[in-house]
Design a protein that fits this description.
Shape: elongated
Helix content: 55-70%
Number of helices: 43
Structural class: mainly alpha
Strand order of the largest sheet: 1-2
Largest sheet: 2 strands, antiparallel
Distance between the termini: 79 Å
Length: 924
């Protein structure tokens, strides 16, 4: 028919169809007048368009009158899907009748499309027989047709399928309705070149309802497929097109993905690895992580585009639901990459900007900051959360809150006592483990226990909560006791620490970690027999726990059973999962690696005790090599975040964002020493100049790690019979990680890198690395000193100083070296330097007290030694011994006898290394 049209009529028809495709209703009347003028046979098309005009204007009017918008869809659920308010049948009756009168006068093609529009008009009304009308209009039309048209007629086919689905829905024929909606998805996906506003509208309607209806039927996998199709199509829609419905669709897609992954996504195989069940649904963990990251980003963008800051007494519960789902999905799939952790923190901060003093958001922020390692910010979030949660519970009815469901708590932003208690326990761990604030840690732990005893006695996880809370309380008491300067308080605190840990064991007798912590506490107060018995129980429950074996070895060394302690080291290291002979060093966590390295250090010290300093030196190079593996950057800190899609879509973020730990790697690794010009060691060098030994971790210009340096290798290895030519170069931590990880992510190559503040975690890890490296050099220095190799001892101390000049042990060892060389004046300067860095350094204070005793200054010696034994040096045998000598020299024999006996008790129970310095107080 269109072939017989004049050129003018064809142009008008094309423009008319474009206006219909854009729903440009004001232009319809003029196009209709012009089209019928040039094509008398176009009467059906014209009246069809005029019916569309009537329906469209009626819908606009009713929505305006009832103030209806798509914002209503933000609350859609599978059982309650919001629809546009129906129009009155009378408002379009005239247009319907006109079209029906002329329906038989047009070509067959025009009649079919007119029937679709009539069905669409009937479905939009409030007529009681509208479903029957739809069926009547569509009864002779094949949907979808065998051959699909193009342009606006293609949109009309999508309209017909959608209207058919809506009618089937009203009849209760949900599966049949879903089939009709799925046909829309199928044809749109296979004809991606078709694009127009009306097609977008009907496609969105069909895919949206299809996904929700499939959820209504409980078919999450099918719903996922529909919502995935929705998302694919949404990428082609205008940016502001039906954003509320998009937010709702992403909400349900995220929840459906999570549910599907937990139920049918994967199952553990015979070797413990994931086995994909639904190969066609893309439920591989890695792929799903990437998909969820993208969905979360689009969900966030679409929701925030239609969300304003809440008013008084309002809650942006939709934001709370979203952030809750994001957190749950991260827990499900893991958040190992440092960039992902950073992205999660930024996501929560953005949520805080759309809510007002939300305790739930603060709780998520606290845990995310702890996970990221930003402990200083986490402390602020913790304080704000606990203050806010306490205020909320004071002003609200706790009894009514207890009856709320989880969803109601989320919507009302109400924290349960369980949530508050878990934050208190985590806060206690943060204060004790990371921030060294035992008083705050004890306050959090005690508050958690109060909550459990008063509110959570019937909670299903009460045993786990009590175990964790008692552990935290015991550790906090122990830390307070070990750092107090009040001798009368120390026994009480230690007794409370033991009591708390015993309570933890009563609650959870099978928890090896409580037994380990109790054994460590017994060891600290020199209850050696009890400690050995308890730590053996811990090992029997978990034979792969390195610190338990380490503690047992130290306990045996405190009984001077060094041979047996060495055999325990061999057994424990063999049992360890961090077995470097079988792994590349990265199969377990870095903290496990640090525990493993600490155990190996103790083994070397015991070798020294049993076989002499030369035997201890045999292990030095292996320890340095192990150090480079333990403190190399973790693979999880490399690469880019799965959530980079957010950075692409965020207007307030730079494309050059890079996480702080990665920045540290780029700038030279995590364990870079600092050579200085004003060094006591350099000025006191025997050759009169600075040391020619490079740092174990080079300065910023160094590209290699040498353990030890070539000119020093002979002095270390000469005692163990190796040749300097066999000395091998070991890559630095950053290089070692690069060798294992291949090329760095492109974000690492961005120049110049942005300046970012490193996380507290990375700063603390650098400090630990420097401390361990300095300790290794000081072990070498001690062995050389006892072997009489003073030059080598001084070189080793210089290396320790280059790595960590703020370590008081460096200057203490230097003082011992000069004392062995009879240079008391310089030794005194070194001890003073150590005390300037750590005023309560027990070993240094004992040495200073001895120097006053040797000089006959008994009052000075007594003052220093007595304050030392009352404070942090209460377990220092030398301090008690010299104090006894002071009392003996001043004829106070009774007190002298007490001090000397106590010194003997401490010496006979002294381990090869300090229990609390060698072992972790927390079980990872």
């Amino acid at each position: 028919m269109t072939l017989t049209l004049t050129a003018k009529a064809q142009v008008i028809e094309r423009d008319f169809q474009l206006a219909r495709a854009k729903a440009n209703y004001p232009a319809f009347s003029e196009f209709a007048r012009r089209y019928i003028k040039h094509n008398k046979n176009g009467i059906v098309l014209v009246n069809t368009a005029m019916l569309e005009l009537a329906v469209g204007e009626a819908e606009i009017a009713i929505r305006k009158a009832q103030k209806w918008t798509y914002m209503t869809s933000l609350d859609d659920t599978p059982d309650n899907i919001a629809s546009s308010p129906p129009i009155r049948q009378e408002s379009i009756q005239e247009a319907v009748e006109k079209l029906e009168r002329v329906l038989s006068k047009g070509p067959e093609e025009h009649q079919e499309y007119a029937a679709i529009v009539l069905a669409r008009a009937a479905m939009a009304t409030n007529a009681p027989d509208r479903v029957q009308r739809v069926a009547h209009y569509l009864q002779n039309i094949q949907l979808p047709p065998v051959r699909l048209p193009s342009g606006y007629n293609f949109a009309l086919i999508a309209c017909g399928l959608t209207v058919k689905g809506l009618a089937l829905e009203e009849e209760g024929k949900i599966p049949e309705a879903i089939v009709s909606y799925d046909n829309v998805a199928l044809w749109v996906q296979t004809h991606s070149n078709e694009k127009c506003e009306e097609l977008f509208a009907w496609t969105e309607h069909a895919l949206y309802r299809a996904g929700l209806l499939k959820l209504r039927l409980g078919d999450h996998l099918a719903a996922v497929r529909s919502f995935r199709a929705y998302h694919t199509q949404a990428l082609t829609w205008p940016g502001n097109f039906r954003l509320p419905r998009r937010a709702t669709a992403y909400r349900h897609l995220s929840q459906a993905l999570s549910t599907s992954f937990k139920t049918v996504g994967y199952q553990a195989g015979a070797n413990g690895s994931p086995t994909v069940v639904d190969e066609q649904s893309h439920f591989y963990p890695a792929a799903l992580s990437s998909e969820m990251a993208e969905i979360h980003a689009y969900w966030e963008d679409s929701l925030y585009a239609v969300t304003t800051f809440p008013g008084a007494n309002e809650k942006n519960w939709r934001v709370l639901v979203m952030i809750e789902q994001i957190i749950e999905d991260r827990k499900l799939l893991g958040c190992e990459n440092d960039a992902d952790k950073k992205a999660l923190v930024e996501t929560i901060y953005r949520a805080s900007q759309k809510t007002f003093q939300s305790p739930r958001v603060l709780r998520f922020l606290f845990f995310a900051l702890v996970e990221k390692g930003q402990y200083d910010e986490a402390e602020l979030a913790l304080k704000a959360y606990l203050d806010m949660a306490e205020i909320n519970h004071k002003v609200k009815d706790s009894t009514a809150e207890d009856s709320l469901t989880h969803d109601e708590r989320v919507r009302q932003d109400v924290e349960s006592r369980y949530d508050i208690t878990t934050v208190m326990i985590a806060g206690s761990r943060l204060y004790s483990k990371e921030l060294a604030k035992p008083q705050e840690a004890l306050k959090c732990a005690s508050g958690a226990l109060d909550n459990i005893h008063v509110y959570l006695q019937k909670h299903e996880l009460v045993a786990d909560l009590l175990n964790d809370a008692y552990q935290c309380q015991g550790i906090a008491y122990g830390l307070q006791a070990s750092t107090t300067h009040e001798p009368h308080q120390r026994p009480q605190m230690y007794a409370k620490a033991v009591e708390s840990l015993e309570n933890a064991i009563k609650v959870a007798p099978g928890a090896f970690d409580s037994l380990y912590l109790l054994a460590l506490q017994y060891a600290e107060i020199r209850e050696i027999a009890k400690a050995i018995l308890t730590v053996k129980q811990s090992i029997s429950l978990n034979s792969s726990h390195i610190p338990s074996w380490h503690l047992l070895a130290l306990l045996l060394s405190s009984q001077k059973d060094y041979e047996r302690a060495l055999s325990i080291c061999a057994v424990g290291l063999k049992e360890s999962e961090w077995d470097l002979a079988q792994t590349d060093g990265f199969s377990a966590s870095q903290l496990d690696g640090e525990d493993y390295l600490a155990f190996r250090v103790t083994q070397a010290i015991l070798q020294d005790q049993v076989h002499g300093p030369e035997a201890g030196l045999e292990h030095e190079e292996a320890l340095f090599s192990l150090y480079t593996r333990v403190f190399a950057p973790e693979p999880s800190s490399m690469g880019e975040s799965l959530y980079d899609i957010q950075n692409v879509r965020r207007r307030d973020q730079s494309d050059n964002d890079m996480n702080s730990s990665t920045l540290a790697v780029v700038n030279g690794g995590t364990t870079t020493g600092r050579p200085r010009s004003s060094s006591i060691l350099s000025s006191r060098s025997r050759n009169g100049g600075g040391s020619d030994i490079g740092s174990i971790i080079g300065a910023s210009h160094s590209n290699t790690l040498e353990v030890p340096k070539a000119n020093y290798a002979s002095s270390i290895t000469s005692s163990i019979g190796t040749s300097p030519n066999k000395h091998r170069r070991i890559p630095p931590p950053a290089a070692a990680a690069g060798a294992n990880q291949g090329t760095l992510g492109r974000s690492l190559l961005s120049l110049p890198p942005p300046v970012q503040r490193p996380t507290t975690k990375s700063v603390m890890r650098t400090a630990r690395a420097n401390k361990v490296l300095a300790t290794l050099w000081l072990m070498s220095a001690s062995a050389f000193r006892r072997l009489g190799r003073m030059d080598d001892a001084q070189k080793a101390i210089e290396e320790a100083e280059r790595v960590n000049s703020s370590d008081p042990d460096v200057w203490y060892q230097l003082g011992l070296l000069y004392t062995a060389q009879q240079d008391q004046e310089t030794a005194s300067v070194s001890f003073s330097k150590a005390l300037a860095l750590e005023p309560y350094h027990p070993a240094c204070l004992a040495r200073v007290g001895r120097s006053y005793l040797d000089a006959g200054s008994f009052e000075m010696a007594e003052g220093i030694l007595e304050s030392t034994t009352k404070s942090l040096g209460w377990d220092n045998a030398e301090a008690w011994f010299y104090l006894g000598k002071v009392f003996e020299a001043t004829d106070r024999l009774t007190r002298a006898k007490e001090c000397l006996w106590y010194a003997l008790d401490l010496e006979t129970s002294r381990p090869a290394r300090s229990f609390t310095k060698a072992l972790p107080r927390y079980v990872q």
